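Chapter review: from sequence to fold.
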Amino acid sequence: MAKHAVIVDAVRTPGGKRGGGLGGWHAADLAAEVLTALQRRNDLDPALVDDVIMGCVSQVGDQSVNVARNAVLAAGWPETVPATTVDRQCGSSQQAAHFAAQGVLAGAYDVVVAAGVEVMTRTPMGASSAGGRPFGPRAEARYADRETFGQRGLVPQGLGAELIAERWGLSRTDLDAYAARSQARAATARDEGRFDREIVPVERRTWDAETREATAHGTDVTADEGIRESTVESLANLKPAFLPDGRITAANSSQITDGASAVLIMSEEKATALGLTPRARFHAFALAGDDPVAMLTAPIPATRRILDRSGLTMADLDLVEINEAFAPVVLAWQRELGADPDRVNVNGGAIALGHPLGASGTKLMATLLCELERTGGRYGLQTMCEGGGLANATIIERL
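The token string follows.
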């Protein structure tokens, strides 16, 4: 009998806007909230957990010194539970899920948690590379002759998004229309309670950047804070973010967000022995690298690779969650893969719900799982662009 890696449960915090209701949380403590939720919801003895693999991008300050291990200790789990923190940029916790499931398939794990955390209010994006030269002189030299909108070499991801919009002929109106749709879909999903099963309410804690002190308010954050009413007409009034005459704005980009998420993964045999019901199984995995200047196009080859490996077609996929780092990432991917927009990010995406970097991978997995269950779909694809021109792709099958 073939061995299967199964998902028993998946949870996430609400997405807290920058400076919002989750900004006062220490990353280890916020990650402990989702670990504790998995424990309570599944009556799980945490001593059974073979490993906790946690994605985090800015591993500095509050998020340094192996935040996964610190979250395990903060959750009150036994000291015997090991943990490690991984960085594949925006796909860090999706990679954590890959490592966790692959460990189960290899027989190295019976019970493992894949998770992610990022508190971007307290540890801003780019904090871990501040003052450094992360690409190094050889990589810089390799791309020194490339010019992108007047800048040479490796450029910020915002210019990569502008480059994608230009290459695929996506207008500002195209991007704003997509952003408005993401907001509308997210609002509908919230109002219909589609996120209720995946969201773990957490205490509202705000952050004073000047005093660097947190304040607990005695109430809970229960819903994503980034959802707002948008129209193409209202979004057209926003100034471009990266180029004076550019197409990328704050509204058609992902939101800077605080959050944590976690997925409980087991061998099918172990789940049965514990009396737990698997909700999905991991069907296929793929990775891809692509041009690091455009940076955000790798979901296209990653998706092609996972379809080849799985023997599935786009028509076989009931739902897709592709991270909305920027609107052109999704629109270019849809065009190349011939994806049905009515199956893609049906509950909105990071433009509305936020992108808590290291937490986004397992966050999207929780949403994909719950939506497959709500709609009765069988196969779901998750993919996301990552810094350096990388992408993960995962296919899960609802059970």
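Two observations follow directly from the output. The chain has twelve helices and 14 strands. The chain has a mean pLDDT of 98.
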